[in-house]
Specification:
236 residues, alpha/beta, five-stranded parallel beta sheet
């Protein structure tokens, strides 16, 4: 579901998992700027989240830290989930059983992104490949934006990104699994390699490959996919 910016005003939105990196912090700022009624919930106590909390200090948001409350999932209008939260979380199950939709930071960005997306994934080498691609493209004439799983959320920059801009995103299997709900695939996709990883989350190699495959599943004629031909898993 696409959530227009004016949809958020007055809506009860739970941000599940603040973490210590940029994605969820950007989400909280994004929601607060659109006048949502924001609740941030995290299993970690406040002292372990001091750096992240400092970055949202002054915003009108409720903080429920050191554990989750069922009401934050049962009574919300939307839950924005950190990629680190497993799909079988009982709190996510409660939200879905209560008819509450879920989304994530990357999906909120992709729904609004007007630039041409170059998506890069793989078990190893995706950060280096993404950084190299962004550096090479920056030498050209078109503006380049670089973010994603590498740690920098571009959600705060969404209004600045123009249709002719290039957007280089490092995409994890978690983010690609979530992006399938849009549905979305970048117009240029790169898969560096695939070998068993994150099986504690995905369960099987086949499920892990299926998550990665979302990077190309919804591509259109004329889009580009670059895969190492010597990698049987990536070729699947």
């Amino acid at each position: 579901m696409l959530y227009p910016d004016d949809w958020f005003r007055g809506k009860n939105v739970t941000v599940m998992g603040l973490g210590r990196f940029g994605g969820q912090i950007a989400v909280v700022r994004f929601l607060a700027a659109r006048r949502a009624v924001v609740t941030v919930t995290d299993l970690a106590p406040a002292e372990r989240l001091a750096g992240a909390l400092a970055q949202i200090a002054g915003l009108d948001v409720a903080l429920h830290l050191g554990g989750h409350r069922e009401s934050d999932f049962r009574d919300a209008d939307l839950v924005v989930v950190s990629p680190a939260v497993p799909e079988d979380s009982p709190f996510l199950r409660l939200a879905r059983d209560s008819g509450v939709p879920t989304t994530c930071e990357m999906n909120l960005f992709l729904e609004r992104c007007r630039g041409r997306v170059i998506g890069i994934t793989g078990t190893a080498g995706k950060s280096t490949t993404s950084a190299m691609a962004a550096a090479i493209l920056t030498a050209g004439e078109r503006p380049v934006w670089f973010g994603g799983n590498i740690g920098r959320s571009l959600l705060a920059d969404i209004d600045k990104i123009q249709p002719d801009d290039l957007v280089v995103l490092e995409l994890s299997s978690f983010q690609l699994e979530d992006a399938a709900a849009l549905p979305f695939s970048p117009s240029v996709a790169v898969v560096t390699n695939i070998f068993p990883n994150h099986l504690d989350r995905h369960g099987t190699l086949e499920a892990y490959i299926a998550a990665k495959a979302h990077i190309t599943r919804y591509q259109r004629p004329g889009d580009v996919l670059a895969v190492w031909s010597g990698d049987d898993n990536a070729a699947r």
